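Quick illustration for those who missed Monday's session on complexes.
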Amino acid sequence: MKAIRYTKYGSPDVIKVVNETTPEPKEGEYRIRIKATTVTPTDCAVRRAEPAITRLFAGLLRPRDIPGDSIAGVIDAIGEGVTEFAVGDEVYGTSAPKSGAHAEYICLSSESPIVRKPEQLSFDEAAGIGDGAITALPFLRDVAKLQAGQHILINGASGAIGTYAIQLSKNYGAKVTAVCSGKNVQMVKELGADEVVDYTKDDFTKAVSKYDVIFDAVGKSSFKKCKMALTSNGIYMTTVPNLSVMFSAMMTSIVKGKKATFAATGLRKGPEKKKDFLFFNEQIKLNQLKSIIDKTFDFDQFKEAHTYVDKGHKVGNVVIRL
Ligand SMILES: NC(=O)c1ccc[n+]([C@@H]2O[C@H](COP(=O)([O-])OP(=O)(O)OC[C@H]3O[C@@H](n4cnc5c(N)ncnc54)[C@H](OP(=O)(O)O)[C@@H]3O)[C@@H](O)[C@H]2O)c1
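Prediction with NAP bound:
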């Protein structure tokens, strides 16, 4: 099978398309022929080994494993004891925290967060859900405990996590302010944003006691800057933890009032994520959740896809179509 390997950490030039033995499913495993996957800022960060701590998971001197984790594809072989799926089933989900989705085939255990793909969802769209939506949901539902009528501000609303976060927040009955640049204002409104702040013109952090939740989906702000804009018991959440937010999270956890938080959603257990994908399936069937696809690339264009994602301005998802 064709797969992606990195020869070392660095620029997109380290990406190589290689030929490897196609894996065979063991007992309790199934094999998916991958039809679509995504390239994300996390894939790019692992490729660059930035922050350096990623080396602890990915390999000290050079990356060990085939990268990638979002998956949309077709079950093409079944190991002994697997009853949930049959050959030919169209499925999607994620392999995270394990990687290996940037390949033509992947074998996964039946514990993995993989579910049947609703018919109305294309493989490209499903691959996006396996990244941005599965990240946004636990922040909104479990960390913020977002309630109907609350006001949430989503920074980076035009990105993969942001575009799903707008829709999920609206589905929870919240009022949504989306922060993006002028070119994406119309798109975020169409996804349901009630108010929009163009970050190239206005600074949302100048607001006073306005938001119950500030979700920085792209990690471009800080708790310190956002504090004034939060209501008295408001929560600041970021997808990109750094020492400053970790310190704020620790300090605010022991006092009443405004909180700073972060989460590493990819590390959640398979069955937990699987329930979330089934929840997404319900929303997709009701037309309440859709994927925004910025660009699609072929398997031989991983380098181009990484170069594009590295720029930090993709709109929704960048998909690799196999
Ligand atoms: N904690 C976790 O569990 C977890 C899980 C997955 C991913 N992540 C991290 O989450 C982050 C976001 O991922 P993503 O895929 O959603 O990112 P993304 O799609 O690459 O975000 C790009 C979007 O962000 C917007 N943007 C860039 N700078 C901005 C700014 N200063 N203010 C507001 N918007 C800005 C861009 O709009 P313009 O073109 O208008 O600038 C663009 O549409 C990544 O760093 C990723 O590593 C964390």
